[in-house]
Amino acid sequence: MRPKPSAGFYDTLFQENRDQAWNDAPGKRVILSALPDFILDVGEGALDIGCGTGYFIHEAGRVLSPDGLRHGPLHGIDVSRSAIEKARARYSDIHFSVMDAHALGFRARSLGLIFSYGVLEHLSHPAEALAEIARVLRPGGRFFLLLPSLGAYRHDRLDEGWYTDLDPNGQPQWNLFRRTWEDMFEKSALRLYPSDWSRRHGALNPEVFFWGERRGGGGP
Ligand SMILES: C[S@@+](CC[C@H](N)C(=O)[O-])C[C@H]1O[C@@H](n2cnc3c(N)ncnc32)[C@H](O)[C@@H]1O
Questions:
Q1: At 16, is the pLDDT very low, low, confident or very high (cuts 50, 70, 90)?
Q2: What CATH number is given to the structural domain containing 65?
C-alpha cells in the first residue's frame, strides 16, 4: 500500500494550529545554520515544498538576506489549503500556492534553491517528486531536504523494502533505509552531498538530511 496523505487531515491540523510545534524542529536549525556555508544563487527563486504555514521559508529568507534586500523571490507550496491561507496571512512578502509536490507549477531549470522538510516520506510517489525537483532546479541549484530514514529514527524494522507505516499523527509514511532513498536520487538528476556534511552543522542523525545539487553545475 502506498501512503495517501489526506489533505483533510492536514487541513484540520493546520486549522487547530497543531503544526506550530514543528517550527522548533532541531533539523530546521541545522539547515538554517548551514546555509551561509554554501554559495547560493537563488536564480528565479527559492521554494519550500510542503511549506505548511510558511515558518521555514520565512526563516530561510532571513538567513539568505539579513538586510531583506538581496534574495530572489521566495515561494512556498503545500497541498493543504488551510496551511496556505495561514501562510499568506502571516508572510505577505512570500508567494504561497496550493500545489501538489508531484506536479510543480514552475518553469524547468528556473529555481536556485529548494527546501522540503518532512514531506517526501508522506508522498504516494516520492521518486516522481524528486524528478520534479530535478526538473525545476537550474543546473547547480541546491536542495536541502529532510526525511526520516530507517535505522536513524527507528531500529525495530530492518526489512528493507517499500512498505508503509504510521507517523506519530497516524498518517502513513515510507520507512526506508537511506540507501534506498539514495538510489532514488541517483536515478534522478540530483547529486547528493555526503551525509556527514549535516553532522558538521550539528545534526545528531546526519542520515536524515539529504543535501545536494542539480547535476550540470560546476560542483560545490
Ligand atoms: C509533516 S508536515 C511538514 C510541514 C512543514 N514542512 C514543516 O516542517 O513544518 C507535511 C506537509 O506536507 C504537506 N503535503 C503532504 N502531501 C503533499 C503533497 N502531495 N504536495 C504538497 N504538500 C504535501 C502537508 O500538507 C504538510 O504541510
A1: very high
A2: 3.40.50.150
Looking up cell 500556492, which residue turns up? Answer: 97
Ligand 1 site residues (CB inside 6 A) read 5, 10, 19, 22, 50-52, 56, 78-80, 83, 100-102, 117-119, 122-123
Contact 63, 29 (CB under 8 A): no
Structural domain count, the chain: 1
* 110 located within any domain: yes
Residue 219 lies in a domain: no
Structural domain harbouring 111:
7-19+26-214
Nearest by Cα to 86 from 71, 76, 73: 76
- What number does the ligand 1 atom closest to the CA of 116 have? 6
What confidence tens digit (pLDDT) does each residue in 140-174 have?
999 999 998 887 777 776 666 666 777 777 777 88
